[in-house]
Structure formats: C-alpha cells, structure tokens
Amino acid sequence: MARDRQPVLVLRHPERAVRIAEALGAVGLASFALPLTDSELPADVDAVGAELHLLGSGRYRWLTVTSANTVKALGMVAASQGTSLARIVSAGGARVAAVGSATARSLAEAGVAVDLVPQDASSAGLLAEFPRGGDAVLLPQADLAPDDLRAGLAALGWAVQRVEAYRTVPYPAEPERRVAGVVEQGTPPPLIALRELATMAADGVQPAIVFTAPSTVRQFHEKLGEGSLAFLPVAIGRATATALREQGWEPGATAADPTPLGIARAVDEALSRGSAVTRVPAPPLNGDQP
Question: Is 290 among the domain residues?
Fold first, then answer.
C-alpha cells in the first residue's frame, strides 16, 4: 500500500487530537480520531477533597502531577469546594512537579506555578531529577496508573500519599462525571467508528494506530471481535510500548517524547521502515460505535 494512502488512527478524542493531526498532516499523513476510553471523577470524590484540604493547610511539601487530566480533575473537585487548585497550592506552599511539558502547561493554565519538569517526560525521568527528602508528597493519579512513581518517590525517602484523582472508563463517560480533558484549538481530525475497522480490514487497508496510553491498549484489545485486521502499532511512550508487548503486539515505533511532533516522527519512522504489521481480530461490521 502506498504510504500516503495509509491512514493513521489516533486513539483519542477528536478535540484532544488536533495538534497530533496537524503534525501528521505536515508529513503528508491523513489521520482519524478513534476514542476508546474516557475519564470520570472517582467514586470517592470526598477522598480527593480531603487531600486537597490537607494540601492547602501545608501538609505536603510537594504536589506531583502526571497528566493534564489530573489537573482538570483536581480543578473540578476544588471548584466544588468553592475554591481553585491555584489558591489551594498557594495557601499550602507546596512545590509542584509535572511529569512533562504538557502537564506543566495545563498547570500553568490553571494558575499553578511549576517548580520541576524533567527533561525526560516519564516517571523514570521525574525520579531521576526529584530531590531526596523525608517529608510528604501528594501524588494524585488515575486509577490505572502504575505504581512505579509512588514506589520511586518512597525509595527517595518521601512519605507518599497517592489518591485516585480520576478513573479511566470505556467511552463515553457519564456526562455529569466526565473529566473533559484539554480541548485543543484548531480543526479536529474526523471521528471514525470502531466498526469501520472491519471495512478497512475487508478492503485490505492496514492503518497505523497511535496508542496514547496503556489503557487504550487494553480497551482496543477488549473491543476486538471476529475477523482480522492488520495494523501498525505506534506507542506514545515506553509504558504504552510495554503494554503493547504484553498483548504480543510489537510497536512499529515508540515516540522519543510524547509531543505531537514526537508522535508524528514515530509514525513516520515506522511507516518509512516498513515495519511488519500485526494481525489481530477486528470488530464486526455491526460492532459498537466509539
């Protein structure tokens, strides 16, 4: 198949895939958005609220944030208490660490000053630059987040309080509990239904699929039905690449950094190398819509 006819599916909401689509378009690739997962506030919102209260009262030396979704979720809980995340952090005097530039940007947009952003946008990169200490760290994360960051911070001597800030659910989330995430400016890529993959398989199309988190790997695997689909998996980072391998799907490429440019480069690299695609079951024509 001609490279310029090979579509790229980004497993993300269209409004959160604008910059990736633009970066892919710059290298001549057409992209589509296929959301499989969504984000909701946790079942125990009171637990998050209690930790925010402690954060504002000076209980924690550091607030460590690993995603823009976490920023949005904390902001929603803070707003329900009649305040804001920025006011809480300012009142408590905690320093703030962000796992990468996208998270740091989301914090800045919420009015929160960031003290530490590692050059390597990963848990390992953050741990490599995080100071040693014996005080307390608040670590709000998704329900499916791995334990490596908590364990690493504890190994550095910190007393880590991990709290579930939001949970990952199949798309779509309950509207009143949905954590909307970051809406990017620009024209979003077209939305594609999961069942349309069956048509691609029937037509011999082999899409490149950008897996944007380990949870998208699990959801993609769970939603597959009868038939077969050949596709080229591309991972947004090392954790997602590991999740792909756990399913027996070797990534055609892994983004060196999780930015739109980094993702576009990874897709371009995988397609240019002509990496072998993986054949897996594909959803039937009457499968669920995304």
Answer: no
